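Mods, move this if it's the wrong board.
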Amino acid sequence: MPAVRGAQGPFVRRLALTLPPSHRAPVSWLLEYGCPAIKYRTLTEIVPGTADPARLAALRVEIDAYPPARQVAKKQKDTGVWGGNLLGVTPNKAAGIKDVGTLHQYRRLVELGWTQESRPLKLGSRLLFRLVSRDEDPKLLFEFQKFGTAEIGVEPWIREIIREATAAALAQAGLGEDPRVRGAAHRIANDISQFLRSELVENPLVKSGGSWVLHPQAYPPTIFSVALLSLLPAVQRERAALVERLGGYLAQPGIKKSFGVVCGKKVFKPNFVLLGDPLKVSSSGQTDDLPFALYWMELLARLGVLQASATAPRLWIRLLKDCDERGVWSPKGLRSLPRRKAPWSYHAFPLQEGKNVESRQVDVTFRMALIARLAGWDITTS
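Not the wrong board. Structure tokens:
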């Protein structure tokens, strides 16, 4: 059950909807209609140990030839960089961003089933290890370089955010046991733990010139740091108390005030900083950003704190109502894919291409089954 702020401390338990302990996964349907990556991941992540090795080997060949993945790979430069930037998703003329950036494209290839044996991920990993290893080369600021050189105080904050996002990408690619990634994770965990135990957790914002800004000593979690910790089970075991406290914090209603981060004379709008629960779900279980909602529930499931959320159960119950008897997500009037609003689910949704009805259903159906498996629920296959 989630926690709320109160007189007995920052996080006090309260009642919430209960998530079901089991889920019906339409494995046969996913294997019929899914793209190569979804087929492979269904067999290896949802029902592991059930597939013939020869079948998995054949799917690996299909994964490497899948057109959407090949298109991503072709956009990479020999330096390992995509789009000339790190964190861009949508074009931004002011920031000089014309295409999707390196960290998102790297993670997208991982989601599409590519491994470290592939040239794009090898090239990307070399660059990412420089980013996570505190290399102070100004060029490694990429799209943030002009801010770092123009404003005192900007560069340290930017580099820290880049390290968080980079470490998360490397962890997702299966490199989480590398000492550089583990070291970064523990440093980040220390900062988050200090914030969650401080008085700033109650009031992390202060007034500055008529606007709300993040307190300069506050270090709340970000979408990147939560992703990083969710992908490192060993660190979770070592920092179990932090994970529990973090789960309680992320169950709180998100702060609705618009706020920025002061860096020198500039104020940045950090849409990746988490001041409570970022998931917006109506009382009827509807959300206006299903791709992000699924990604967020996956992170919570990997952390083992999905049940602590007040919003995730409402959404899950709604998603179950839209599933047929096989477990296939089949909402009425589904004419297009759910639209993404926040950029942070770009790498994960959609994996499937196509224009038929099944192509609109596959990604959500697969993510629901994956979330259920990660949450430790009983899986019934159909």
